[in-house]
């Protein structure tokens, strides 16, 4: 990987970092927002959900446009729209007494922009590198940047909210401008291989996608489902943990942010290491996914049994390691398994499924916790076990991809 490629990759990695900050920064602030706006836990969780819900609908369209016109053509305007959405939400909170509805609208606009930002990063990395090892390493860095954003989010969100509770919203436009400038000036336009060789109609394009699903549906559906489960767990558990630290442990501000960052740091480190070691070995990827999901499920089951906040943090951190082992493998499998001409759309559908998990996680946690926190942990542990079973039986690596691991074990 050359120096120019490294600069491009670092610039691209700013997108998932900033997109994650724009959403996850709100998690430690949700209790304060609920208090300031006088809304319920379910209503405040919709500030996360509406962002994700609109992105779910628009991500496949953004993927199609990126395949047809190029990745930067979609990414740069999307970053601008994301910043505008954050500005709307922040100004509404600042200037209006009853700002909840306008803040939801701002988050809706932000979700429109998010649809064309991070989801396009995955195929863009696949376009930039020819070597499989460079692709897997690049995607590992992207997933690490995404996770590092989650690590930094609770700390930064808590710090900003100590100045004024709506400042995290106002910080989003600043971050988006930085990322937009980096991509604009540091990332070269994708090569011709990143776009179709000829223009085709949307109906013909859909027919191509249908053919891809017909030939690869089994493992694609499995990866979509697993990505959704991983995001559901992250955002659901962190939403619960944020409330728990304030209401029961009486931990606030930056200290709370640092505690929330611990399991995310474990996830981040696991993602980085996994991206470095997997290469193009699909058999290794499969077993890392299965093992990661089993570690996730086991940790969540224990979380349902313990009452100590310290032990809860320990086992949620173990759950984070499980997710961190799985995510880079999912990214590489779906990027390398699809032709470049259709890669943007397929990876965007995958990103949509991850956003579904983000959208479902916080409200699901809020509903289940009303009955019992243990019920919440047992429920999502069961979902994680199901995801592990799907990975075990639906993901079948090609035989020629198994040879490297067999040689390594010989």
UniProtKB/TrEMBL annotation:
Keyword list, A-Z: Cell membrane, Membrane, Transmembrane, Transmembrane helix, Transport
Membrane association type: Multi-pass membrane protein
SUPFAM superfamilies: MFS general substrate transporter
Main location: membrane
Residue stretches spanning the membrane: 12-33, 45-66, 73-96, 108-126, 163-187, 219-241, 253-275, 287-307, 313-334, 346-369, 375-395
Membrane listed as a keyword: yes
Subcellular location: Cell membrane
Gene3D superfamilies in UniProt: MFS general substrate transporter like domains (1.20.1250.20)
Domain Major facilitator superfamily (MFS) profile residue range list: 8-399
Family named by the database record: Belongs to the major facilitator superfamily. TCR/Tet family.
Name of the protein: Multidrug resistance protein
């Amino acid at each position: 990987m050359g120096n120019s490629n490294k600069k491009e990759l670092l610039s691209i990695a700013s997108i998932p970092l900033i997109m994650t900050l724009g959403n996850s920064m709100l998690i430690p602030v949700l209790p304060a927002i609920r208090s300031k706006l006088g809304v319920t836990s379910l209503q405040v969780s919709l500030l996360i959900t509406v962002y994700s819900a609109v992105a779910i609908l628009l991500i496949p369209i953004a993927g199609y446009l990126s395949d047809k016109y190029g990745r930067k053509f979609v990414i740069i305007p999307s970053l601008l729209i994301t910043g505008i959405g954050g500005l709307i939400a922040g100004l509404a909170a600042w200037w209006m007494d009853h700002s909840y509805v306008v803040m939801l609208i701002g988050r809706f606009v932000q979700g429109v922009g998010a649809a064309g930002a991070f989801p396009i990063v995955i195929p863009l990395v696949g376009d930039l590198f020819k070597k499989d090892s460079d692709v897997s390493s690049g995607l590992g860095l992207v997933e690490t940047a995404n996770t590092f954003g989650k690590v930094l989010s609770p700390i930064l969100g808590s710090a900003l909210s100590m100045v004024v509770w709506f400042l995290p919203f106002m910080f989003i436009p600043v971050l988006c401008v930085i990322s937009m400038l980096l991509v604009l000036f540091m990332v070269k336009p994708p090569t011709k291989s990143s776009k179709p060789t000829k223009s085709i109609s949307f109906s013909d394009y859909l027919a191509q996608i249908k053919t891809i699903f017909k030939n690869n549906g089994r493992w694609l559906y499995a990866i979509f489902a697993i990505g959704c489960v991983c995001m559901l767990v992250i955002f659901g558990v962190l939403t619960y943990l944020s409330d728990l630290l304030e209401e029961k442990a009486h931990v606030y501000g930056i200290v709370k942010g640092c505690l929330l960052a611990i399991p995310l740091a474990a996830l981040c480190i696991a993602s980085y290491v996994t991206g470095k070691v997997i290469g193009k070995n699909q058999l290794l990827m499969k077993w890392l996914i299965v093992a990661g999901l089993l570690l996730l499920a086991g940790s969540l089951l224990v979380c349902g049994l313990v009452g100590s906040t310290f032990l809860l943090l320990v086992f949620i951190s173990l759950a984070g390691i499980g997710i961190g082992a799985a995510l880079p493998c999912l990214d590489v499998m779906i990027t390398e398994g699809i032709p470049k001409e259709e890669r943007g759309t397929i990876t965007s559908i995958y990103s949509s499924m991850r956003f579904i998990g983000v959208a479902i996680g916080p409200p699901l946690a809020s509903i289940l916790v009303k009955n019992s926190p243990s019920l919440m942990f047992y429920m999502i542990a069961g979902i994680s076990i199901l995801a592990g079973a799907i990975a075990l039986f639906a993901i079948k690596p090609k035989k020629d991809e198994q040879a490297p691991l067999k040689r390594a074990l010989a």
